[in-house]
Amino acid sequence: MTATLSSPLSEQITATFARRRLVALAVPVVIFAYLLYTFFAFDIPGLAQRARLDNAAILLSDFWSHKTHVTRNNRTGDVVVAIEGEGKGTYPPGKMPDWVSIDGGVTTVDLGTGHIVTYDDAGARLVVPGYGTIDIRPEGNGLALTAPEPLPKWINASDTRIAVTTPAGRFNYTKSKVETFRYQAGWELFFFTLDSPFHGKSLLQLVSLAVSGDRVYPDRSNFSAMVQDVWTNQMWRHSDVVWALFETVLMAFLGTMGAAIVALPLGFLAARNFNPLGPLRFAFRRLFDFIRGVDGLIWTIILSRAFGPGPMTGALAMAVTDTGSFGKMFSEALENIDEKQVEGIRSTGANTLQRARFGVIPQVTPVLLSQVLYYLESNTRSATVIGAIVGGGIGLLLTQAIQTQKDWEEVAYYMTLIVLMVMAMDSLSGWLRKRLIKG
Amino acid sequence: MGSGNFISGDLMADIAASAPQSAAQSRDAYLDMVRRKRMYGGILLVIFIAFLASGWMLADSRNAGGFWNGLPNLGQFPSEVISEAWEKRAVLPGRFIEFLPSLIETINIAAVATLIGGLMAVVLSLLSTRGLARWPRLIPVFRRMMDAFRAIPEIVIALVLIYILGGGPVAAVVAIALHTGGALGKLFSEVAENTDLKPVEGLTSVGASWGQRMWLGVIPQVAPNWISYALLRFEINVRASAILGFVGEGGIGHDLKLAMQWGQGRYDQVVAIFLLLFLTIFLIDRVSDHYRNRLVKGN
Questions:
Q1: The pTM is what?
Q2: Is the ipTM value over 0.85, yes or no?
Q3: Between chain A and chain B, how many beta carbons pairs sit less than 8 Å apart?
């Protein structure tokens, strides 16, 4: 009898196991097949051709260094030394850096480690240690190059343009101008631009200037002049950046809190135990679903059409999007409360508002607060993206810096600031959560 | 005996004499405390409201168009768009089909990023959970790693990678996957902390390697919760992928940006994209809600 019973049972179990084994095998196979499909759909084999590793190299070098352009206009003979080639970083005549010397028509650039570039009336010469001298002269309509043969790969020469890349710097000669780029560590002009009297001073000198009485400007103290010069730095625009960071945090704060304040009463109206009217409840539920379904992107576009670019548009977009999420979560939290506390408050003759205030709010506050703080955290991150769309905050500065495709040191600076801002907001909300919820 | 009675009687009298007084005192102290608490709460509330109000006013003043000027225009754009789309309603089905490939690209970006990020999160979370970690000393390293992945906003990585990789969906995939790895890793690790360690001990006793202990002892326990979190993340990632397309490149977000830049005359495209996005997100929301309920509550 046991045999007749156990046989179908064992068959059944064997079949179940076989099915499970098949599923366990099929899931990785399906995932693998899908990844294979996207591998070709995203054209990853073609990625190697499209990838611009030279761009990556420029980006990485700009993260920790800056370059100074020494440019001679071959028609007029004017020599300009400018940091990152920007007008705001141009050295005034007579105040050249110590590695550039201009003596009449001869300009000598010392790139360090024996690399020396000379511009003169005949053309330009470049001494590379261990290789020799590269001499370039204009000849007829083109350029004549004299250099030890065979030409190495780091010299790129054509009739109209000669480019030399060495570890010490890059060199470019065309008919109209000759340029030398020297790379140096650090972000130059980060604190003081060239027009500031404090430029080029060491930290010790700055401290002694700030402490001692010799005023650079007679009408204000050295310290306030320093602060002023840093704050109005034209290269790095510190005041704009600080405002942009503040705007980003402000957007996140206003958006999250605005949504929470609007969603709280709506949450009561959508909760089963507070709103006996079924159709109304249903309407609010669907409203929340609708708001969440219309993505934040679409809300941002619609609102920026009405209110124009700026931080308030971003804050409103976030507030609208999160009202849907908060409404749903709040109503669910309200439905899960313990009815006994409300019962107790009711027994003392409290009215509806008092029951809500003393019976419900204390119960749901920790849940709601932790959700609100979590959204504040995640909205600080989203505010960067939304800022890029609505045109406000650090997101706008970041996208602008990336679109110009040359100020990569600024991109690096903004990225660092964004990460620091997000981390600071994370720890702030973590601290608040501990203080407010765990007591 | 007698002295004992005397003492206890004296004590009783003392207590009886002091009782009403202390009750009154404690009531006063209690009311005082309540009053103080309410005052602090009130002050905090006033400060908070002042912060909020001044914040809105500041944001309003830094906006290109003011709030009250913009409010009447709120309906203008939607009504323009809808009326134009209504005139061209005959071509809308064609538009849906036209944008379907880019919608699929957006969803693919989100799905691949969720898969890769989820796998990253599995490894990172197991390595950073107390009691399960392969190298317990390295737990803080992996935790900080996840924090860093979470902290970098997707747009930063995406824009930089677009510049290096020359466009294409890979930049968005990497950006979203990194963020997903950090965000899911934290949630996964919280789930893994609550696992029952007995199966792991059993596997250790038969000489299972770390990989086998995790695969056979931990994963089966945490899989329902992990998959539920991953589904929620997928939904978030679809939205992120659309936004990244709008700011950067690729997918339906990019088509939306092009149509918006063109403005009037292409509002039928805008409506088609809005509807496609809405339906997709709504559908994914419903489906993932359904499966998450089934996974967590067990059928």
A1: 0.81
A2: no
A3: 179
